[in-house]
Each structure stands twice: as C-alpha cells, then as structure tokens.
Write a structure and sequence with these properties.
Number of helices: 27
Structural class: alpha/beta
C-alpha cells in the first residue's frame, strides 16, 4: 500500500505542481498510463505576446513537455491533428467564489436586539468581522457543476476567495479539474483577502463604511503590537493577520471611491493592495492610476435601459446612462493609462456572458494581446504562480484551450479545455452557413438571403427591392427562417426545412396561410465589403461620449480654471472694519483676494461688471452632512476613531446645488447617535475634484460630541436597551470615563517615551488605541469639539465635565436653549452654531425661540447659523436674515453669522470669512441684496475659480438634455437590434441629518 501523506504535506506537494503520484489509496484497478498527447499543426499562443504557427504541443503527466515548430512527437504519444485550430493558455480568474461556501450576509434588522460583543468562542479577535484565521483551502470542495460552467468560458485556474468579513483570511489557487481536492490545489495560501464588508457578522460594530475603515486600521495596529509582544496576548486572529500580510493582498472594493479609500489605508501600513473593482474605475482614472494598484476588473456591463416611455426615461440618472455606454471601455482606458489589469467572471450572474463581454471590451479599444495578458500572465504573476500557469512553456501545467479561430472573434468557439492534462469537451465545431443564397420561394426567384454574423449566431438579411432583417436558426440539420414580406409589411413569411450540402430547402407558409416549397441555393461567400460594413457598424456602436468631472449631472469635460479677475462697481460686504462699500472693486489673483477698494485696475484681468450687484464672502456651513457615504457609526458610545474624511463623496450633487446657494465651505460632521462620535472633515466645495482635493488644507481637527435624546437612544425602539448609556446621567458618565481612560493612556505613553533607548529595548511599548489617541488630542488642544445640544441642563453638565477633566468645548451646535446659558458660554469662550427658527419638532426643543441667535450674539458669543440639512444650506443667506427680523440685528452682523463667524468657529478666519487682501478668494457675486429672499448667486468662486456660474449653468442644462437625448436614442437603437434592456430605476436622494442611522444601503431609520 502506498504511503499516505499528511494533509499539510499533500498541499505542499501539490503546490509545487508535481501531480505524478497519488497520496490516497484507490478502491479498484489503478490506471498508470502516462498522459502523453501531441497536438500538431496548431497555431499555439504560448503566452500573450508569442504566437507560433503550425506548431506542435506535447504534454506529459499533466505538464507541458515541449512546444514549437521542430518538436519531435514522442513514441507512444496520442497524436491529435489541430490544423486550423488555435491553442491558448488556460485562462486564470483571480477572484472567484468557486468551491467555497456561499456567504449569505444576513443584515440585522434595526428592530432586533443589538449584539455588542463577539459570540465566537475561542482565542479570536474581539470583532467577528475580523476573521483572518479563515483559510479558504480548508473550506474548499470541488464543484463539478460550477467547474464546468467556468471551463466553458476558457478558465482552467481560479483563486477561491471566501468573501466573508473585513479581514477574510487567505484564498487558495485551484484548478478546475474534476479531481480530488488535494490534487487541484496549486497554492493553499495564494493571497490574503480584505474588504469593507462585515459579511456574516451580526455584531453591531461597525455599521458604517467609516467604521469598517477604522476597524481595519486598528486591526493593523493591533496585529503589529501582538507580533511584537506575543507574551501579552494569545490571539489567533491577530497572529493569522500578521501571517497573511506575507501574501498578495486582494481588496474587494465595491466602487471607485472605495478603491481610493482602501489604498489610503494600505499606504498607511505599507501595503500595496490588488483591488477588485466594480467596473467604474475609468470615472476617476487619474486617481486610480495614482494608487499604483493592479485592478481586477469586472466584465459585468449594464444593459441598456428601456426608455421608450419619455416619463420612464426621466427616471434614469445621467451618470447611469453614461455608465451604460462607457463601461465596456473601462478596461481599454485603464490599460492605456498604464494601470495593470486582470479580469474576473465573478460578478456575472450568467457566466455565459463572460466571453461576449470580453470581446466587447476588445471592440471598445483593448488590444487582443492585452486582453490575453489580463487573463493569463498578469493574474499568474500577481499570485506568484507564473511558474505554474499563465503560459505554455516547458514545465508548466498543461492548462490550455483549443478554439476554432481567434479567441477574441465571434468565430473563436472553444472546442476543448484541458486542465492539468485532462480533456474536457466544450462544444463541437459549428457548421458555418454564412454567405449569399439565391432564394426560390415557390415561383418567386426575386430574393436573396445574406447570412452573416458568426457561425454560432448567424444573422439574416433578405435582399429584394428593399432589404429587411429576418431571423434564422440552424440546429443540427434543421433550419427555421422568418422575415417580413416587405420593409413596410408587418406580415411574416415563415420557412422551415433542412440543410442539403451547402443548400437549404424545405416548406413554408406565406402570410395568406398558403403553403409553399422553397430552396436557398448557396451562391457565394460573404464579400469583403460586407465584412467591412459590419466592422464599420460595430465601430460606430462602440463610439462613446466624453468623460465629465465629476461623473454626475452638471459635470464638465474640463474643470473651470483659476483666473485673474476684477469685479467692478459692486456693493462689497467686506466683514472687516471697512464694512459695506458701495461702488467698490474686488481683485482676485492666484486664488487669493489681491485688493479690495475703489477704482482698481489690473492688466490682463477678466473684468466682471458688478453694477447693481453685491459681493460677499462665501457662505460657510458649520454643520453639514452632505457629500458623505454614511453619517453615523452609532453602535458604540464612543467612536472617536472614525473619520468623516474616510467617507467623503465628491460626486454628491448637493455640492453643486449648494454652490448655487453661495456656499463655499462646509464642516462635514458625524451624526448624533452617540455621546462621542467621529472626527469631522472640513471641505471646500471644489466641484469635480477628488475627495482628498476637497479637504481644506492644514485645517484644525474637529470631532462631534452629542447630548440629548439621540445618544441615549430614546426613539430607537423598545429593543434598543443594551447599549450604554440609556439615560442622560449615563451620558455624563461616558464622558468622564472616556477622558479618564484617555489621561491614563497618555500617561502610559509618556512613561514609555521617557525611558532610555536601553530601557525601551527591555520594556513593552503600549498598544496604540486610535479611539483614545483622538481624545488625547482634545486634551492637548489639537482637536476641537462641536457638540450637538439642546437642553440647558445637559449643556451645563458638559461644561462642568470639561472643566473637571481639563478639556474645552469649541462649539455647541443646534444649542436651541443657548439663550439660557450664553453667559457661561461667553465666560469659557464657547461658540454657538444654531438654527434660525426651528422649534417644536421634538420634546427637547419645546423651549426654542427664534431670538436665540440674536441673544447669544448680543452677549458676545461667536454665533453662526448652520443648516444640518442639504436643502436648507442652499438658503443660509435667508436663514441669517431671519435674525434681522426677530431681533433687529444689523444686516452686517446677520451676514457674518454665515460667513465670518463660522470661519472663527472653525479657526479659519485668517483664511476666509471676510473680503481682505491675502485671504482665499471664496467669494459670491449676488444679483441682489444678499439677505433678500430674491437674492441668487450669479457666480460662486472657490479659491478664485468660478465653480458655479449662472450663465454656465444654463449651458450645462442644455448640454445635459442633449446628452440625455443622445443616449436615449442610442438605447432605443440597441433595443431595436434585439439587445437586452433593463427597467428604468430612479435613485432615491437620501438627505441625511444628525440623527440618521444607516444599517445598510437598503435600510435606514430616523431618531428625531
């Protein structure tokens, strides 16, 4: 009996590609014949750039023994004549769920009780979404049905990824041979897998994208600490995470923005991810290229929308329409930009679409060489398996496909797929009936049939006085044909029959129900002109519109540029000691305000006539939730580790809309789901720029705190009674506890850092904790608090806690009872950012009054009016004007509440908020008095760039409608040619507020 190896030895053995010996006993007769086959007279593509005509390929025992034109066929070999056929290396899919259990992520309903802690028993990580100890090879099982499905598309090798969790463990490289598991595994740990998705974890944290980013970031730090201090904690997960870092890192990103987000995390920890994309990467090509990440591309192209109904067509967003048109060009655009690409069939619901979509990508500009490279050499190299698969060099696995013609043409039918030297028949050589036929229909001989298309999918045209399209089906020896009697006729002639040599014949039925005999006599092959006409038609269909930035309505092919501009003869609201200047000028140069005054001139400046118009500083929204992919990580009482900067969405249409309302800067705040929320992001509304380019450079860091009903989960439902705190007094204890831990954490680091180099070598470094590091920043005046607040008692409580624990509150936001505590706020230098006249929308605001802002301002509190609402932000000038009505505040002070005062609260008043030489040219040109309900911005400048221009807006609207109509017509044409269509769908615009808690893309609820 043969020696039985251990499983580990078996995996190592197979990883070397040696398949000659069996490690399991067999019940029955052994077949010891050597697999020796020689393929002669073939066009062999040994790799993506080498083609050998009239070559011989010899395989033995599942490997390539020889390939070339002067290869001698070994004695005893089975010889297969492959004349006229092409042989390609077997395709490699480097992102597949083949052979591993399906992951069904059951989203916890917000109506079910929370799960705060992990239920996974053992010495594993505290969070169930972190599961790097998972090895796909241990879960892997050969699946004959799925293997056959993939082999039909030309694949011989796939990377099996278990898509469960944020840190998913390792993936296995396996072949699609129908053998035992131990025989098909090429590399048991070929790559590590990561994502931002929780997978099957039902644990509450994280429930947001920013929480996933933070958890992954903290896991890297924890794994580093664990590796350096193995005696401190035995953690299987962290040890496995460290080990997995030795393999290629494949990150599944669900969209282009997540690729950029993941890359930033990777850069923090010195990891270059291979990104699994979603097919929209071309929309941010410069940023994607800058990541240097190889991209695994989806070939799941969207179908055209059914837009015959004009009202249905209006439901389809412009970016969805453009993506339908441009998605097939994604691969070509990336490759031409120098991005390394590979392909996967993973996202396709029907794997039969893979080869047609691959060929479509080639028609849209990807070279055949690069397409083959992306399916063979590139995935093999990225997985360090290029000595096993990806080419047909001597010693490689005998993984290859045999096709009737060029793989990338419609005539390139896959006949056989050989995996590890074993033959799998895919299809027979299709009979080719393409050509021109003379049709005799009864006594009528005036028609010709043109059969074009591919051998597998023939297309029919009937040529007479006019030409009509018809339908033809040839299955085996049987033929079915139908076509309209004439171009204008809706009545069809239907024929059925059989193939006789190259001719077709049979019986049919005319529109008058009479029977008729018919014969289609083959007369000639398709002419070269017909082939050229078809190629030209295909080329026309692959023409695509221009890219726009952002990839959204009101995006532009080119972004507006910085100019030297001089606004003349306007009413200028300076917000400086000069006050409001009549008939004054503002000079903008290099993105800055160069001069403010009268009778200014500048050579070469573009002059804007401001006669009868008003110029103000750009509006600054101290409290906003636009341009964010999620607003709350509300699963824990303290989530100071999460960062809004991680989830900025630069394509949010509200950026453009708010520019149209004169807003130039916004603080993007975490929500109010917990006492200590996440870190803020302060952005300028640079429409068309990337997320990183929106962030205000060198701005101070802020963080969101919250008080009141939301943080104690008052309106979250009766089941939400597990997360602490559940009462207002519990909220106070959260703050005290958090800052006490932060102080102790800081002292631990101080003690460690005070050690000498020698002492440090013997000591254990403290574990880095991102949550506590953020709180330490607050204690050291390096991060500043904006606190959601309503009720006087709680406001007093937080001021008291701040005094006791040694930190400061920068701003109370909402602060609808600010008029009651304004004196205490003034004493501590705390600002207020409030609503103008919101009240009575919940119990906490029953004492709100519209005079609140005026009273705080009068008592010396720096007071701002904020939006907390995407719609209200477009009218903040009007919100500011309400204090003139309610309190008699001066117009200039009212304007300051949405310009200079929020700039002060954000510590940016040295750069924005007033019109002064040297400040950023964030400026609004209004048609009327800026506090009037009739006021509209004519131009909104950010850094001296007109990101909103009312005249350009009119042009964009016209261009948008023309582009929509062009795409509608193209979709109608696609449908007319028989292409699949999908029902129009409208995207619901979700306007977020402080209280929104997002559990998934489909499910949200509000806790007002």
């Amino acid at each position: 009996m043969k020696k039985i190896l251990t499983i580990a030895a078996c995996l190592t053995f197979s990883a070397g590609g040696v398949m000659a010996q069996e490690t399991f006993p067999r019940n029955g007769v052994y077949d010891e014949r050597a697999g020796l086959v020689a393929f002669t007279n073939a066009t062999v593509h040994t790799d993506y750039k080498t083609t050998i005509p009239n070559a011989t390929l010899v395989i033995r025992d599942g490997k390539v023994e020889a390939v070339g034109t002067n290869v001698k066929v070994p004695a005893g070999a089975v010889v297969m004549d492959a004349k006229g056929k092409h042989i390609y290396p077997g395709l490699v899919d480097m992102f597949s769920d083949y052979g591993v259990p399906e992951v069904k992520a059951e989203r916890r309903s917000w109506r079910s009780a929370p799960q705060m802690e992990s239920t996974k028993e053992g010495a594993f990580n505290w969070n169930e979404a972190i599961r790097p100890e998972t090895d796909a090879v241990e879960l892997f099982k050969v699946d004959a049905k799925k293997a056959e499905e993939l082999r039909k598309q030309g694949f011989g090798t796939v990377l099996a990824v278990h898509r469960d969790g944020i840190a998913r463990g390792t993936a296995a490289l396996v072949t699609l041979a129908e053998k035992r598991e131990n025989e098909v595994v090429l590399k048991d740990r070929a790559a590590a897998a990561l994502s931002f998705e929780k997978g099957t974890s039902k644990q509450d944290y994280p429930n947001s994208l920013m929480g996933s980013v933070a958890l992954l970031r903290q896991t890297y730090l924890d794994a580093q600490w664990n590796a350096q201090n193995p005696q401190k904690e035995q953690n299987i997960s962290l040890a496995a995470f460290t080990q997995a870092n030795n393999y290629p890192q494949i990150f599944e990103a669900s969209n282009k923005l997540n690729i950029l987000r993941a890359d930033k995390v990777g850069d923090e920890f010195g990891k270059q991810y291979i990104m699994k994309g979603a097919g929209d990467e071309y929309q941010m090509l410069p940023q994607i290229k800058a990541t240097n990440a190889p991209i695994i591309l989806s070939l799941d192209f969207p179908s055209a929308y059914n837009v015959e109904d004009p009202f249905d067509a209006r439901r389809v967003a412009l970016n969805d329409m453009k993506h339908w048109e441009m998605a097939p060009a994604n691969a070509a655009l990336l490759q031409k930009a120098g991005v390394t690409i590979a392909f996967t069939a993973h996202d396709l619901k029907d794997k039969k679409d893979f080869l047609p979509n691959l060929r479509k990508a080639v028609k849209y500009g990807l070279s055949e060489e690069e397409a083959l490279k992306a399916l063979t050499a590139t995935p093999a190299k990225l997985l360090n398996a290029d000595k096993l698969v990806g080419s047909l060099n001597k010693g490689m696995l005998a993984n290859f496909i045999i096709t009737t013609d060029n793989l990338f043409s419609e005539d390139g039918v896959i006949l056989e797929n050989w995996v590890q030297g074993e033959q799998y028949r895919i299809s027979d050589v299709p009979a080719d009936y393409r050509g021109v036929y003379t049709l005799k229909l009864g006594n009528d001989t005036g028609r010709k049939l043109l059969i074009a298309g591919s051998a597998e999918k023939p297309e029919l045209k009937v040529i007479a006085q006019d030409t009509v399209k018809g339908n033809i089906s040839i299955k085996g020896n049987l033929v079915t044909i139908s076509f309209a009697e004439s171009k204008d006729s809706k009545q069809s002639i239907r024929l059925s029959g059989w193939v006789s040599d190259k001719n077709l014949q049979g019986e049919g039925q005319l529109p008058n129900a009479s029977s008729v005999k018919w014969v289609a006599a083959y007369s000639e092959a398709m002419t070269e002109q017909e082939k050229k006409d078809r190629a030209k038609k295909e080329e026309e269909n692959t023409a695509i519109g221009s890219m726009i930035y952002p990839f959204q309505a009101y995006g532009q092919p080119e972004l507006p540029k910085q100019e030297t501009m001089l606004i003349k003869n306007a009413t200028v609201w300076t917000n400086e000691k000069e006050g409001k200047l009549e008939n004054a000028d503002v000079l903008i140069r290099n993105g800055k305000i160069a001069k403010v005054g009268k009778n200014l001139s500048e050579s070469g400046a573009r002059v804007i006539d401001g006669t009868g118009k008003h110029v103000t500083p750009g509006i600054i929204d101290e409290h906003s939730h636009i341009a964010l992919d999620g607003v709350n990580e509300g699963t824990q009482a303290v989530t100071s580790e999460v960062r809004m900067a991680d989830v900025v969405d630069p394509e949010d249409i509200n950026i453009y809309r708010q520019l149209a309302g004169g807003v130039t800067t916004s603080q993007l705040l975490h929500g109010s789901a917990n006492p200590i929320g996440g870190q803020s992001a302060i952005i300028k509304l640079r429409w068309g720029k990337s997320a990183d380019e929106l962030l205000v450079e060198n701005a101070d860091g802020y963080i969101k705190f919250a008080l009141g009903e939301n943080v104690k989960q008052s309106n979250w439902g009766g089941i939400q009674t597990i997360r602490f705190p559940q009462s207002r007094m519990g909220v106070e204890q959260v703050f005290v506890d958090a800052f006490q831990r932060a102080k102790e954490y800081e002292q631990t680091w101080k003690n460690y850092n005070s050690l000498s180099k020698k002492q440090k070598s013997k000591a254990t470094a403290p574990r880095r904790d991102l949550e506590l590091e953020t709180l330490v920043e607050i204690l050291n005046d390096k991060r500043f608090i904006t606190c959601h607040s309503y009720v006087q008692s709680e406001i007093n409580m937080l001021m008291k806690v701040a005094d006791e624990m040694g930190f400061k509150v920068n701003t109370f936001t909402h602060i609808l009872e600010g008029y009651k505590v304004a004196d205490k706020m003034k004493e501590r230098g705390i600002g207020g950012s409030t609503f103008s006249d919101w009240w009575a929308y919940k119990m906490e605001v029953k004492d709100a009054i519209p005079q609140n802002a005026g009273i705080m301002n009068q008592l010396g509190v720096v007071t701002a009016i904020n939006s907390d609402d995407a719609e209200m932000a477009r009218r903040l000038n009007q919100e500011a004007a309400k204090s003139v009505k309610y309190t008699g505040m001066s117009e200039e002070d009212a304007l300051k509440m949405v310009t200079l005062n929020p700039a002060k609260l954000l510590h940016l008043d040295d750069r924005m908020g007033s019109l002064k030489a040297g400040k950023d040219a964030d400026i609004v040109l209004w048609n009327e008095h800026p506090l009037s309900i009739y006021a509209k911005p004519l131009k909104t400048f950010v850094d001296g760039i007109a990101y909103y221009d009312v005249e350009r807006d009119e042009q964009l609207r016209e261009e948008l409608e023309k582009e929509r109509m062009r795409l509608v017509q193209k979709m109608l044409h696609e449908k007319g040619n028989g292409a699949k269509t999908q029902a129009p769908r409208s995207r619901k615009a979700h306007v977020v507020h402080c209280e929104d808690v997002q559990h998934s893309e489909e499910e949200s609820y509000f806790a007002y």
